[in-house]
Amino acid sequence: MLDRKRYFLHDQALLGAITASLQRSSVYKPGVSETNRAALRKALRTSLVETVRSYTMPVSEETHVNNISALAQRVSAECGPCLADGHLRIGIAQKALNLYLKYLWCYGCIPTPPHCPFDSRVISRLPNQTSVCWTRLDDLDAYRSLVRAAEQVAGGQSLSIWELHAYQRA
């Protein structure tokens, strides 16, 4: 029974992360069919599951940023023709991975993730970053700037814990 419960929790975490990352993010080219949209969701799901396997132990920030980039590249290679700009933007990839990790961490399945999900709610709390739109973010250096700004606000606390408190206060 425990395996069925874990499967359910992982499935809900994936569904929540993918839905939150793709809705209202203008990720698809105009006129993309529902079949192609489903293929994108499936590709993102598969890539997330593969990526998260390495998070059973703490992961360095460099490895995490590389995983975000690799996730965007894998999904882009598989689904580029149906994506706006022809590729999955870094902002969408980071939101999907960071939110999936947050769910798994909150469920007690993995250690504390290196980063939090950066979305409009989090970005609005960061100094000199409020003009950044996570759905348009397409550069790893800009992503790293968000991380540095969040670290300043977090004051030495892990970004995951800081964001969890910030989410509850919102």
Task: Walk me through what this model shows.
This protein has one domain (2-169). The chain is built from 7 helices and no strands. The chain has helices at 2-22, 34-52, 61-79, 90-106, 120-123, 140-154, 159-169. The longest helix is centred in the N-terminal third of the chain and has 21 residues, at 2-22.
Rg value: 16 Å
Residue stretches low in confidence (pLDDT < 50, at least 5 long) are: none
Give the termini distance in whole angstroms.
36 Å
C-alpha geometry: globular
Topology, element by element:
Elements lengths: L1 H21 L11 H19 L8 H19 L10 H17 L13 H4 L16 H15 L4 H11 L1
Task: Explain briefly what this protein structure is.
This protein has 170 residues and is an all-alpha fold.
Any descriptors?
170 residues; single chain; mainly alpha; globular
